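Feature request, filed as a ticket because there's no other form

It would be nice if the structure record came with a short human-readable summary line next to the tokens. Right now we just get the raw output. Example of a typical job, pasted below so the devs can see what we mean:
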Amino acid sequence: MVEKNRFDFGNRIPTNDEIFDLMSKWGLPDGIREHSIVVKDIAMDFVRKIHERDPNVRIDARVVEAGALLHDIGRVKSHGLDHGYRGYQALVEARVDERVARCALVHVLGGFTVDDIKREFPGNSKDIRVSLMPQSIEEKIVCFADKHAVGSMQVSVKKRFSRWFKKHGRTPFLLKSRYRIMQLDKDIKSLL
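Raw output as currently delivered:
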């Protein structure tokens, strides 16, 4: 750590204590911190169940845990669709392990293609020219776990999308996102 609010993790996975310190110093609201803890618990439950079924499935539980705790860190900069990208940028600057930072990058609404970003993201985010789709099993678990939490409550994916549909309507964009989450559901449940 260089200065009060500046972190340098040396491209490693931070410990939970370091993550909570980062959350505090960066000013992450308590409600988002509580949400992140719930997402971490859900994600780690998926990891546990997958390993109970097949201990040979390669999942880095440390990446899942840290990625789930840090998935919404970008909300200190944005509450829009770009908060995953903004969190990724901040984590890269803090030299957090790339696999953990990518969990923040790709967790929003099941991921976005470059075309989605051009059409749906706010004007100041049009500079994003990379796919924000979850690829690794760790990224998929964090993204999927996030869709099972509203605030600090665990909910079904159906309930989470019902809330979004009620707030924003059954837009083609949200319907596409729901389809992507259902694909993640199949990927993860095939391992359970």
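Something like this underneath would help us a lot:
The mean pLDDT is 91.
The chain has one domain: 16-189.
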